Amino acid sequence: MRQFAVIGSGPAGFYTAEALSKTYGDGARVDILDRLPVPYGLIRFGVAPDHQSIKAVAKRYEKVALEPSVRFLGNVHLGADVSVEELLHYFDAVVLATGAPNDRRLGIPGDDLPGVIGSAAFVGWYNGHPDFADLRPPLDVEGAAVIGNGNVALDVARILAKTNDEFSGSDIVDHALRTLTGSSVRTITVLGRRGPHQIAMTPKELGELGHLQAAAPLVDPIDLPPPEADGMLEPGQRKSVAHLRHFAATPPDKAKPKRIAFDFFAKPLVIEGDGRAERVIVERTALAADGNARGTGETYVVEAGLVVSCIGYASPPMPGVPYDEKLGRFPNEGGRIAERLYAVGWARRGPTGTIGTNRPDGQEVAERIAALFPPAGAPSGREGSAGLDRLLASRGSDPVRFADWQKIEAAEVAAARAGAPREKLVRVEELLRARRH
Question: Which domains occur in the chain, in start order?
Answer without folding.
Answer: 2-101+314-400 (3.40.50.720), 105-309 (3.50.50.60)
